[in-house]
Design brief:
Blueprint (H helix, E strand, L loop, with lengths): L2 H13 L15 H18 L7 H12 L8 H34 L6 E2 L5 E6 L11 E9 L5 E4 L6 E4 L5 H7 L7 E6 L20 E11 L7
Antiparallel strand pairs: 1-2, 2-6, 3-4, 3-5, 3-7, 6-7
Length: about 230
């Protein structure tokens, strides 16, 4: 985990004001209580995203000690090392769980009769099939597409009016391979394993580790590189 992310996680609690007794209605509380509650929400939002179990009393004690310049249990360097180790452990656990879920999903999905599997492991189903020209690895294509995770959560889509221009040389290998199976006018759904997409690392805050990506793609047009629009 990058040190900048750790520093942000540490600095937000340090900026929090000393906690007040719990109130039922912070919207109508005094300014100090409202600010404190708002800071608490932001701190929790950052901490929640890293999936760590915390001792709230110890967390509060650490915040108070920093703000009030009390004697600290750790140096800042020691605190940084403890947090980095905890974050790495949490990330490793998440990756292991995601890998297990991905293996299970792909194994079950390929049992469906409509699913075809290529030698690379790409899974796909044909929604609409046409005959005609197919793109090659250097083509630029225009497509409509939507992208979701295996739980159905959307994460990307093309422009509804114009679609998107996709250079096959510049996308994940699962996209390149899948599009080369299609003819203009056809519509496929691709189940792209993480090893053909963003791998065991994913993309921070966008694509989790070991994510199988599901794309529904309609191939509208094939254009040559020198004549196409990006």
């Amino acid at each position: 985990m990058k040190k900048l992310f750790v520093i942000v996680c540490l600095l937000l609690p340090m900026m929090s004001l000393q906690a007040k007794a719990i109130q039922e209605d912070y919207k109508n509380a005094d300014e100090k209580a409202r600010i404190s509650y708002a800071f608490g929400m932001l701190v929790a939002s950052n901490l929640k995203s890293i999936d760590l179990e915390l001792d709230y009393k110890a967390l509060s004690d650490g915040i108070k000690a920093m703000i009030e310049n009390l004697e600290l249990e750790f140096t800042e360097q020691e605190a940084m090392e403890i947090v980095e180790a905890a974050l790495q452990k949490s990330m490793d656990k998440t990756s292991e769980e995601n890998e297990r879920r991905e293996i299970e999903f792909l194994a079950n999905n390929k049992q469906r009769p409509e699913i075809k599997v290529t030698p690379s492991g790409l899974q796909y189903e044909i929604i609409t099939e046409t005959d005609g020209e197919k793109p090659d690895g250097k083509s630029i294509v225009r497509v409509y597409y939507t992208g979701t995770f295996t739980d159905g959560t959307p994460f990307d889509s093309s422009n509804e009016d114009e679609g998107a221009y996709i250079p096959l040389e510049m996308v994940i290998s699962g996209w390149t391979e899948g599009l080369m199976l299609m003819s203009v006018g056809s519509k496929y759904r691709f189940y792209i394993p993480s090893e053909l997409a963003y791998g065991k690392e994913g993309i921070q805050s966008i694509i989790p580790p070991y994510s199988t990506l599901i794309f529904t793609v309609e191939l509208l047009e094939i254009t040559e590189g020198e004549d196409s629009e990006e």
